[in-house]
Amino acid sequence: MPKAKSAPKAAPATKAAAAKPVMAKTVAPKVAAGEELVFTRPASLADRATHYCPGCHHGIAHRMVAELLDEMDLAGRTVAASSIGCSVFLYNYIQVDTVESPHGRAPAVATGIKRARPDTFVFSYQGDGDLASIGMAEIMHAANRGERLTVVFVNNTVYGMTGGQMAPTTLIGQKTTTCPGGRCKDREGSPIRMAEIIAQLGGTAFCARGSLDSVKNIRQAKKYMRQAFEAQTRGLGFGFVELLSGCPTNWRLSPVAANKRITEEMIPYFPLGVYKELEGDATCGSLVSTGAMAGGAAGESK
Amino acid sequence: MSRILVTEERCKGCLLCTTVCPVSIIRQSERINQQGYKVAEVGAEDMDKCTGCTSCATICPDMAIQVWRSKKTKKAA
User: Which domains does chain B have, with CATH numbers?
Assistant: First the structure.
């Protein structure tokens, strides 16, 4: 009976045509009794190859979002606001309704969605060139208004899609195509620490920074993301998670070396942890009044 | 028995999985997939060492790894 159970589970998850012969080559298809499938693709994540470079952490972040949407049973009422950057094709990978936003404006678009349809779960997924540079005004004000949104902020310290230009989060001394001698503090200023900034704003209910460089940090980051999602589902306010991630291509590193760089260079400058966490419904009341929405009843979160 | 399955057409050969395996059984194979990447594999002789910890699948950016774990003793279906 366990044999029969694991077989149909495995079948739909693997890409039927391509993976079949490969599967036989890699592993002797021994379906032993008494084993269970403990890790497979979440239902909300499309079964297709991503366009990301080898070792890009967007894939991990996508999977974590999809897993949470499934685990929290939100997928059916979720609308995503995707951004400009490598994650522009989010709608191809996460199977929820998605609005493609202008560069940096995902929090503004998400605000509109959430106010028009307060029963939906709305999240935006943005990179650092999108959120911390051109979209700085939108993210600051969305957080300050306490919109019931969740923002997943993927920080890889460069503009990935356009070829590795300097971003506001580029570390001092890091070489990019637009600062070939390395970022200079006197000329370009210091890297912006977004999680710390967002945590200072009144409407923020949850703000944390995680990292995707190791298994331990990935699991911790997922817990942060769950709390940021809950900040919205419980109507507490704005949820924000920054995820330190790698860009092996634009860092000119191998994926393994890129992960090492996150551990050794990024985490010391961008400390991990929870920066703000509101608890309980008592705060909710005051937040609702500060973030008072034009639509009165429409502002009432579920 | 715990085991993993690498979907080779999805593997991009980034080898992050090889760095996190607690029993170091994942390695790069000599096979090249359609996209031109040398894929990760676990040798048939090593597969019984797999603990089913899901570390490799957790760090895989491309959902190329599925993990089966043996059930704890007294399950009796």
Answer: 3-68 (3.30.70.20)
Structural domains of chain A sorted by starting position, each given as residue range(s) with its CATH number in brackets: 1-40 (no CATH), 58-289 (3.40.50.970)
For residue A45, the chain B residue with the least C-alpha distance is B63
Which one, of A198, A220, A193, lies nearest residue A138 by Cα?
A198
Comparing alpha-carbon positions, the chain B residue that sits nearest to A50 is: B62
Question: For residue A267, what are its two tokens?
Answer: 């985490």
Q: What share of chain A is helix, strand, coil (3-state, %, to 5)?
A: 45, 20, 35
Provide the token pair at A104: 């940096």
B interface test, pick of A1, A3, A9, A22 with most B CB neighbours within 10 Å: A22
> Comparing C-alpha atoms, which of B39, B36, B34, B30 is closest to residue B62?
B39
Q: Is residue A278 scored above 70 in pLDDT? A: yes
Q: Does the pTM exceed 0.80?
A: yes
Low-confidence ranges of chain B (pLDDT < 50): 75-77
Degrees, nearest 5: CA angle A201-A206-A207: 70
CB pair distance less than 8 Å for A248 and B67: no
Interface contact B59-A60, CB threshold 8 A: yes
Q: What is the three-state SS of A138-171?
A: HHHHHHHHCCCCEEEEEECCEECCCCCEECCCCC
Torsion A149-A150-A156-A161 (CA) sign: negative
Summarised one tens digit per residue, pLDDT across range A80-99 is 999 999 999 999 999 999 99
Handedness of CA A280, A285, A291, A293 (dihedral sign): positive
